[in-house]
């Protein structure tokens, strides 16, 4: 019996640390949750919006050997850009230096966005989603290195969830609705 316990402990200890340490982080002021493989770094920066204007953005990120995981939230409340143009531009900028394999409509809590898979020239892959919700761009990117676990990139990108509202099924806008 001790031998079985020893082997189980050995196997558990040899498992990749990243597979065991994913934690959901909540950002109520930004209206989302997402799972990161480690404590994310948070920084305020600028985001170049369509048309070249710079807007304030906050970036939540973890970079480690197994990949780079990032959520960018850009404040577009002082711009007059359309939802479609904002998301198309975001996917275009994400795809620079790579080949878009998938670019399809995607929704989270009935908030319509885009989902993309991008193969990079260095063999890495990026799994991304973009949403334009409450006049903010949400850009979610999970990039794994060549030969890395695509599961980590997909897991990160699929863990994103909105916490500040939802859309009615027949509603055409991304404006916040009471629950």
Describe this structure in words.
- The chain has 179 residues and is an alpha+beta fold.
- The chain has helices spanning 2-14, 17-20, 83-94, 150-159, and strands at residues 23-27, 32-36, 41-48, 54-64, 67-75, 98-108, 111-120, 125-133, 136-144, 161-162.
- It is globular and about 40 Å long.
- The relative contact order is 0.17.
Short description:
The longest helix is centred in the first third of the chain and has 13 residues, at 2-14.
| Low-pLDDT runs | 1-19, 174-179
Shape: globular
Order of helices and strands: HHEEEEEHEEEEHE
Radius of gyration: 18 Å
Side by side, the strands of the main sheet go 3-4-5-9-8-7-6
Largest sheet geometry:
7 strands, antiparallel
């Amino acid at each position: 019996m001790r031998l079985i316990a020893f082997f189980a402990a050995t196997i558990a200890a040899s498992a990749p640390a990243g597979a065991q340490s994913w934690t959901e982080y909540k950002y109520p002021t930004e209206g989302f949750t997402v799972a990161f493989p480690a404590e994310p770094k948070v920084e305020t920066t600028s985001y170049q919006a369509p048309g070249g204007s710079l807007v304030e953005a906050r970036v939540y990120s973890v970079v480690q050997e197994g990949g780079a995981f990032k959520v960018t939230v850009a404040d577009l409340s002082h711009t007059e850009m359309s939802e479609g143009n904002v998301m198309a531009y975001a996917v275009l900028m994400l795809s620079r230096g790579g080949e878009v394999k998938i670019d399809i409509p995607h929704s989270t809590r009935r908030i319509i966005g885009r989902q993309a898979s991008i193969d990079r020239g260095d063999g890495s892959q990026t799994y991304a989603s973009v949403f334009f919700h409450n006049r903010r761009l949400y850009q979610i990117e999970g990039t794994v290195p060549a030969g890395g676990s695509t599961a980590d990139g997909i897991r990160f990108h699929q863990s994103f969830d909105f916490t500040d509202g939802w859309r009615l099924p027949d509603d055409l806008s991304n404006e916040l609705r009471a629950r």
